[in-house]
# Entry
Amino acid sequence: MDVPMKLRLATVLMATAVITTAQEAPVVREGAYWVGSIGDSFPIAAQSRLQVNTRGNVVVRKIAGDQVTYRVRQRVRAASEDQARALLGGGAKQVSSVRGRVLLELQPISARTVKTDIEIGVPSQVSTVIIQTELGGIDVAEFDGAVQLSTGGGEIQLGRIGGTVQCYSGAGQVVIERAGGAINCTTVGGNMVVRDAAGTVALSNQMGGNIRVDKAAGEVRAHSAQGMIEVGQAGGAVFADTQGGFIQVGSARGVQAESAAGMVRVKNDAGPMNLATMAGNILAELLGGARVEDSSLVAGAGDITVLIPSNLSVSVMARNSTGGGAPRIVSEFPEIRITPAKFFQSPLVGQGAINGGGPVLNLNTSNGVIYLRRK
# Structure
């Protein structure tokens, strides 16, 4: 019998407790849509992990008590109630428990034209929420524990998460307001934004989209196939690479950045800098009191500018291989000795020890100008 909003039975092996139900729901007309809705609840033990497998948009909200609640709402355009029931499909709901993990299967058997929205109420006593949806967005406004999220295609929106965050989207942007632990997220295409992370951050954009991390307590790793990468403040080192777009780091304790086509702009507190661009300028600023280490700045086609505090002790080795007989190294430090090229198309070299010398800054451009500026 075709009954709207029934959920497909899924087999779960090794389940210690299984509750399977088929629920009938009335179909009502709301404007241009036929709408069906079901909901229920079930108990969950403290410190359990909750996993939800489904298809559709999922919203997770934090609730009081010891019961997990769910509501599935579907709507579709149809000429009649019978046609709507046929499009909405049928199925069954299943709840199972295995070794501290409670699995809720909500798999509507419905046409692709049906819009499915699932709301899950999760008690604070749950340690981890795992959401796997075949297609649709995932929204978690607030949760005290850890989250593991996966969608075949849709946006992931996270508010205040108390624990770690793992997420994957087949196509869609990822936005995280705050995480109390480490973040590890991947999207095939779409922008990625992290406002505040209490741990390390690892973001990967596999096809196209920008990446922005405003603040992270630990290291930041960011990869974008085609897009800009911006890191405001990192408590650890920053590792960033992109095939198309600029890279900007406002504050970090060591930076490794590579851009195939775009500018690299970095402010470094401590640690080494390894910066490279095939086509674009490099601007590196050493912050006051910086504890730098040996660093390498290489531009295939672009200028290199380094801003050095007047009291910082560093050694400089600069090479400019610009062709045409006119390579340039411009220095505001008298300690830097610039040796003219001896032969046509041989590199121009500038080297010296500022304030007695220290960690080595290796600067190399093949087509541009090297600037050593005093802060």
Remarks:
- The two ends are 78 Å apart (CA to CA).
- The first helix runs from residue 81 to 88.
- Residues 1-122 form one domain.
- Residues 1-22 have pLDDT under 50 and may be disordered.
